[in-house]
Amino acid sequence: MKKRWLYLMILLIVLLCAPALAEDLAGECKIYQAEKGRLDSLTDHDDATGVQLREAVEHVLEIRPGATPVASLSLVMGRDMLPFTVQTQGADGRWTVIARVADTDYAQRYVSFPPQSQPFRLVFAGEKPAPLSLREVYLFAEGQADPALAHDWQAPCDKADMMTIVAHPDDELLWFGGTIPYYAGQQGLKLQAVYMTCSNYQRRIELLNGLWHCGVRNYPEIAWKIDRKDRDMDATYYLWGRNKTCAYLVGLLRRYRPEVVVTHDVNGEYGHSQHLATSDAVYQAVLKASDPDYDPESAALYGVWQVKKLYRHLGKEAGTIMDYDQPLSVFGGKSAYTIAKEAFDMHMTQHESGHWRVPGPDQPYDSTRYTLVFSTVGEDTQGNDMLENIAPETLSNYHP
Questions:
Q1: Amino acid 20: pLDDT
Q2: How many CB atoms within 10 Å of residue 133?
Q3: pLDDT tens, residue by residue, 247-286
């Protein structure tokens, strides 16, 4: 009963304090492109649909607002991504840039600009002719855009508090359960997510949606290694390259300098060869990242780094048991476990078989159980917090 009342109180506080969101204008606006005509698939709120534009020097999309002026937009990209500008036309017919997105690294991009009631355009162009893949354009009125749709990604971490390293998109939710919602969302830690594979660009959109839902705001690292289940770990290493994989991970550890790293079970959960290789390579990389003689190129670029703690999921004598069922204020009283399940539901391409669900306590592959396999700060004694023995002043959310 007390837990129920606590949930209701947290939910009431969140609802009272939450600001009104800017209106979603997808139903009012029309988007046109010379080659394709009217592009209704870009405003259908389905990022599995969209348009593929052929190679060109520049791609121009005209946006015609409805009754409400447009003040910001969020784009979802597919395979082919380009920088773009937002432009308005003056009385003299000349086009003026009112907003610019110069990077080409993020598949989801958000930009705001002065409210536009007249037609305006998006111009995509790179250094040479290139194709363009667009999945969705979310358009918003003036005010705070809905964060569930407008993913304004920050750059990858300058300095990470925690790093999760998994083989495939959705592994970070299936096997780690509420870890990301709890530490990135509720605790506000800088979490750098790393994926060894991503078999297609729809899965990239799904992993971005899931991470954002869990409270991650720093764009993830994706290695784009070949995604294939082999007979054993050695076969995966043959596919990826054993030394190349370790050096890649050492470079990431040195670049992002995480205090705590979390990765797969030593047995690869259900024995997936790429889970096995990822778990093994992460362990080796943690040992080598502090050695200046290993991979001197990344050592010269980033310096060396000593990870403080490495956790593997599960283990024969899992000594860290996380409680992910408590209500979290950041998520309106929902638990970290609930948020993880909601995020996993965003991986739509993986739900055809209906086989996998985020496992709770005492279920096969229990997502609350972990083993501390490396530590420079001593063994855990409480066994309920991956930050145990981590000096608070080393964390990004530390406020003395």
A1: 75
A2: 17
A3: 999 999 999 999 999 999 999 999 999 999 999 999 999 9
Please give the structure tokens belonging to residue 202.
């729809």
Q: Residue 383: CB partners within 8 Å, gap ≥ 6?
A: 319, 320, 321
Q: Where are the beta strands (DSSP E) in 257-325?
A: 260-263, 309-313, 320-321
Contacts of 234 (CB under 8 A, 6+ apart): none
3 burial (CB, 10 Å; 0-12 / 13-18 / 19+) is: exposed
Confidence (pLDDT) at 9: 54
Report pLDDT for 353.
63
For the packed helices 273-288 and 233-240, what is the interaxial angle rounded to 10 degrees? 70
Task: List, in order, residues 6 or more apart from 134 with CB less than 8 Å away.
Answer: 39, 42, 50, 51, 53, 61, 75, 76, 77, 78
* Residue 380 CA: distances (Å) to CA of 235, 309, 314, 373: 35, 10, 15, 11
Cα torsion angle, 136, 140, 146, 152, sign: positive
Indicate the burial class of 275 (C-beta count within 10 angstroms; 0-12, 13-18, 19 or more). Answer: buried
Q: How far apart are CA 205 and CA 50, in angstroms?
A: 13
Closest CA to 53 of 70, 41, 65: 41
Alpha-carbon distance of 211 to 201, in angstroms, equals 15
Phi and psi at residue 197, to the nearest 5°: -130, 165
Structure tokens at 47: 């990022």
Using an 8 Å Cβ cutoff, are 116 and 70 in contact?
A: yes
Instruction: Identify the segments of the chain with pLDDT beneath 70.
Output: 1-19, 352-354, 399-400
User: From CA 117, how far away is CA 167, in angstroms rounded?
Assistant: 46
51 within 8 A of 38, measured Cβ to Cβ: no
